[in-house]
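Thread: "does anyone have the structure for this chain?"

Original post by V.I.:
We have the sequence but no experimental structure in hand. Need at least a predicted one for the grant figures.
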Amino acid sequence: MKKFMEKTSVRIAVIAIAVLAVIVVVFLAMKALKASDDASSVIDEESTTMESTEASEVVDPETITDSMAGDDLEETSQVPEGEEEETMTEETTEKETPKKPARPKQEPASTEAAVPTVESEPAPVVPEYTAPTGSSGNTGGNTGSTPSEPTTEESTEQSPDEYYEENSTVIRSFDASLSEDVHTEEEVISFLEERGFTQYPITYDFAMGGEYSGDTEITGDPGEKRPMYQTFYECENGEFWTVFVINGEIYAKPVIYNLESELPVQVLISESEQVTSYNNKTNKYYVTIPKETAVIIKIVDRIDAETLNRLTSEEIDKL
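Reply from O.Q.:
Generated one for you, tokens below.
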């Protein structure tokens, strides 16, 4: 029995040692496995770090090109030391002192600019009661052409005397420079102001000797006379008038009415059936009764602002 017990104790001890050995082996194996996992994690982290570092170190080819271009530009922009300071000074001056914009060119003032024009007509001109081309034989103005010396072609045209004989009944003609009825510049201002014509400047085209001066505004000189004066008047009803003073007589032309009218000739408002015209070629006044094939004369008692404001298209037709 004693021997049996001793054998059993030995077996138990061997089994315990074997179990203990297994436990130790398992513990060591688990520890080794854990160490292996830690080492693998560290390796993965180091690998990730290395990849990130390598990626950041990779340079884009375009960046390299831009960098090289910048280097070339810096090399190109380098200037000698003496000129570099001067260039920098000029650039600083341009930045600190902005350039002033160029001043728009101003056209010289003219009386024509102050006078409104009517579409399809360059400016209010005189009736179609005209003398031969190149002369100013109109009732109240010239033909729109600058007087010039006659040419071979013009020599075949009618003379002013022949024209008026053909287109009117001539009452008389006389030298403009000898007339005592011509207003001075000072007198014509008062004459027109008294009738209400103060909206626009008073102008003239010819001197008393017939010399062409262009459209010139009067100065009110009491010692200067002009064979013919012109101004404009705009009515409350929308009509626009050209007003003429010729040898002390006054006439008015309805510009818009004449443009819109279907009449074959233009209409002229007068205080009498007799009309005074001026021709600069002969430097004469012609007092005539025009034929209706040349100009239609409409007679009123008095030409003034009040009368013209009343003369609508319908009223002109009734005259």
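V.I.: this helps a lot. The longest strand covers residues 168-175.
O.Q.: and The two ends are 171 Å apart (CA to CA).
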